C-alpha cells in the first residue's frame, strides 16, 4: 500500500474525527461505498463547473476550479473502472443529507453566498480526505492504495477552496462563518443516519 500523505492540517481543521462506527458501517457496505464515492466525485466536478458558470468575473476561481473539475472527473473515471473490474453495478441512489445540511447555512446575498459556498467546498473536501485516510488501511490492497493516492489531491482541493474564500472576505468574516459551518458539519458527522453513504453520519440504532 502506498505511503500516506501528511494530512495533519486537515485533521486540525475539522471539528471532529470520523466516528469508528462509520468506518465499520463502510466495511459492511463495500459496493455502496464505491457507488457513492463515484457520485461524490461526479458531484464535486459539477459543483466546480457550476461556480465557473456563475462567477465568470473571478479569474482565480475560474483557473483553480477548472483544474479541480478535471481532477474530480478523472477520479470518477478511476472509481467506475474499479467498479467494472469488481462487477459492481451503478444504480441510482439518494444523496446523503451531509452536503445539503451544510448548504442550508449558505447566505443568499452576494458576496456572502460565494464566500460560504467556497467554505462549504473546503469542508467537504477536507472531510473526504479524512475519510479516505481513515478507511484506507482497512481495505484490500487495490482500493486502499487508490484511496491513499487521493489524499494529495483532496488536500489541495481543500486548500484551493479555502484560499479562494480568503481572497474574497476578511479574515474575521471567514473565521466567523467557518465556526458556524464546522459546528454544523460536526452535528452531521456525529448524528445518526438510516442509510450508509460516504458522507453519512453514524448508523441509527436498529
Please provide the count of β strands: 2
> What ranges have pLDDT less than 50 throughout 5 or more consecutive residues?
none
Radius of gyration: 17 Å
User: H/E series, N to C?
Assistant: HHHHHHHHHEE
Share in β-strands: under 5%
- Relative helix content: 55-70%
Tally of helical segments: 9
**Strand pairing plus helix content: what structural class?**
mainly alpha
Amino-to-carboxy terminus distance: 35 Å
Question: Largest sheet, described in full?
Answer: 2 strands, parallel
How would you sum up the global shape? globular
Mean pLDDT: 96
Major sheet: arrangement of strands:
1-2
Structure description:
This protein is mostly helical. 69% of the residues lie in helices and 2% in strands. The longest helix has 27 residues.
Structural key phrases:
mainly alpha; globular; single chain; 9 helices; 206 residues; two-stranded parallel ribbon; 2 strands; 69% helix
TL;DR of this structure?
The protein has nine helices and two strands. It has 206 residues and is an all-alpha fold.
Furnish the topology, listing elements before pairings:
Elements: H1 8-13, H2 20-28, H3 30-54, H4 59-85, H5 97-103, H6 112-135, H7 141-149, H8 151-166, H9 171-190, E1 192-193, E2 202-203
Parallel strand pairs: 1-2
Helix pairs in contact: 3-4, 4-8, 5-9, 6-8, 6-9
Amino acid at each position: 500500500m502506498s505511503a500516506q500523505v501528511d494530512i495533519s492540517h486537515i485533521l486540525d481543521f475539522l471539528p471532529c474525527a470520523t466516528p469508528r462506527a462509520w468506518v465499520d458501517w463502510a466495511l459492511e457496505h463495500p459496493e455502496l461505498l464505491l457507488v457513492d464515492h463515484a457520485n461524490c466525485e461526479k458531484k464535486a466536478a459539477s459543483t466546480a463547473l457550476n461556480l465557473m458558470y456563475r462567477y465568470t468575473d473571478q479569474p482565480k476561481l475560474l483557473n483553480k476550479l477548472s483544474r479541480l473539475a478535471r481532477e474530480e472527473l478523472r477520479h470518477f473515471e478511476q472509481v467506475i473502472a474499479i467498479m467494472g473490474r469488481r462487477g459492481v453495478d451503478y444504480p441510482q441512489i439518494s444523496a446523503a443529507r451531509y452536503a445539503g445540511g451544510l448548504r442550508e447555512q449558505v447566505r443568499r446575498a452576494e458576496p456572502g453566498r460565494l464566500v460560504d459556498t467556497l467554505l462549504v467546498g473546503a469542508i467537504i473536501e477536507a472531510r473526504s480526505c479524512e475519510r479516505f485516510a481513515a478507511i484506507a488501511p482497512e481495505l484490500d490492497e487495490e482500493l486502499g492504495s487508490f484511496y491513499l493516492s487521493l489524499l494529495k489531491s483532496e488536500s489541495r482541493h481543500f486548500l484551493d477552496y479555502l484560499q479562494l474564500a480568503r481572497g474574497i472576505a476578511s479574515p474575521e468574516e471567514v473565521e466567523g462563518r467557518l465556526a458556524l459551518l464546522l459546528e454544523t458539519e460536526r452535528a452531521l458527522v456525529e448524528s445518526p443516519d438510516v442509510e450508509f453513504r460516504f458522507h453519512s453520519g453514524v448508523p441509527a440504532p436498529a
